[in-house]
Amino acid sequence: MKHEMVFGLHAVEALLNRAPERIKELWLLKGRDDERLKVIAELAAQFGVKAQISARKVLDDKAESSQHQGVVARCVAEPVKGEHELDALLDGVETPFLLVLDGVTDPHNLGACLRSADAAGVQGVIVPKDRSVGLTGIVRKVAVGAAESVPLFQVTNLARTLRHLQERGVWIVGAAGEADHDLYQSKLNGPLAIAMGAEGKGLRRLTREVCDELISIPMAGAVSSLNVSVASGICLFEAVRQRQS
Ligand SMILES: C[S@@+](CC[C@H](N)C(=O)[O-])C[C@H]1O[C@@H](n2cnc3c(N)ncnc32)[C@H](O)[C@@H]1O
C-alpha cells in the first residue's frame, strides 16, 4: 500500500475531518503551545489516531520540509483519479464548473490554485498526468485543506479530455494574455471549464486549439503576465460573480 506525508495545520485538520481512517501515524511538535495543535490532538484522539509528540528534527525528517507547522501525518495514499472518475463527477453535477491546469509544475502554484478552486466552488481540477506536479506534501500544505476537498483528476491526454467535456456540453474557456477578447466580455454562467497555462509556456498549442474561446485578463501595468494562481483566482471569481447574478 502506498503512503504519503501530509503536513501543515490546515491540511492535517482537513484530513482528520474527512478521512481519519487514512492516517497511520501522526507526529506533533514537542513543546509547542498552540491552540490549533491542541485542536488537532483532540480530533486525533476522537478518531482513535495516536499522536507521537516529537522533536522538530523528527518532523522535519518525516515531512522532508521544515514547513510543517508542527504537525505531520503519514497516511494511505488515495488512488489517483482519472478520466473515469471525472465522468462519474459529471454524471452527478447539474452545471459543471471545472478548472484545468495545463502543466503547472510549481507545487506552490498548484496548492494556491486548489485553494482558490475550493473557495470558488469548483467541483474538480483537471491536470495532465505528465508534465504536472501531483499532490505532494507542499501542495497539500499550501492548499490549506483544499487538496482534501477538491478532487484532482490526472488525465493521460488533456486535449482528448477537453473534447470529451465539450461533448458533454461543457464550454472550455482558455486564459491567454494575448487573446483579444477579455474575461469580462465572456459568458461564464453555464457548464464551464476554465483552462490555465503553465508557468513558463502558457497553454500548449493543442489545448489552445480545443478551447471554445480564449480570453485575456486586462493588464494595466508594465508586466506581461500574472502568476497562474492569481490569474486562476481572477477568472474563477468572475465566473462565480456571473453564476450568482
Ligand atoms: C505566468 S502565465 C504564463 C505566461 C506565458 N509566457 C504565456 O505566454 O502565457 C501562466 C498562465 O496564467 C494565465 N495568465 C496569466 N496572465 C494572464 C492574463 N493577463 N490574461 C489571461 N491569462 C493570464 C494564463 O493561463 C497563462 O498561461
From TrEMBL:
Broad class of where this protein is predominantly found: cytoplasm
EC number(s) from the headed UniProt entry: 2.1.1.185
Keywords, in A-Z order: Cytoplasm, Methyltransferase, rRNA processing, S-adenosyl-L-methionine, Transferase
Annotated ranges, domain RNA 2-O ribose methyltransferase substrate binding: 5-81
Top class in the EC scheme: transferase
Free-text function comment from the UniProt entry: Specifically methylates the ribose of guanosine 2251 in 23S rRNA.
Family statement: Belongs to the class IV-like SAM-binding methyltransferase superfamily. RNA methyltransferase TrmH family. RlmB subfamily.
Name of the protein described by the UniProt record: 23S rRNA (guanosine-2'-O-)-methyltransferase RlmB
Taxonomic source organism: Ferrimonas pelagia
